[in-house]
C-alpha cells in the first residue's frame, strides 16, 4: 500500500493459483480436475483506493477481478 499526502492510500493485490492433483467430492472420493469446475488456474487482481478523513473515518473503494 502506498500513502500519498497522508490522506490517500493506494494498493494493488495480485494472486495466481495453479492447482495440481485431484480434488475430493462430497463423499471424499477422488475426482479429477476436469470434473471439478472450482479447481482450475485462477488469476485475481484487486486495486484499492483509500481516503482517510480522520483518525476514525475512512472511505475505501476496491474492485476485485477474478479470471478462472
3D structure, described in words:
This protein is mostly beta strands and 68 residues long. The protein has one domain. The protein is 0% helix and 53% strand. The strands form two sheets. Strands 1, 2, 5, 6 and 7 form a five-stranded antiparallel sheet that branches. Strands 3-4 form a two-stranded antiparallel ribbon. It starts with a strand and ends with a strand.
Summary keywords:
0% helix, 7 strands, 68 residues, two-stranded antiparallel sheet, mainly beta, five-stranded antiparallel sheet
Shape: elongated
| Count, helices | 0
Order of helices and strands: EEEEEEE
| Nearest-integer average pLDDT | 78
Structural Rg: 19 Å
> Helicity range of the residues?
under 10%
Supply the helix-strand structural class.
mainly beta
Helix-strand blueprint:
Layout: E1 2-4, E2 8-17, E3 23-24, E4 30-31, E5 42-52, E6 58-62, E7 65-67
Antiparallel strand pairs: 1-2, 2-5, 3-4, 5-6, 5-7
Q: In brief, what are we looking at here?
A:
The protein is an all-beta fold and 68 residues long.
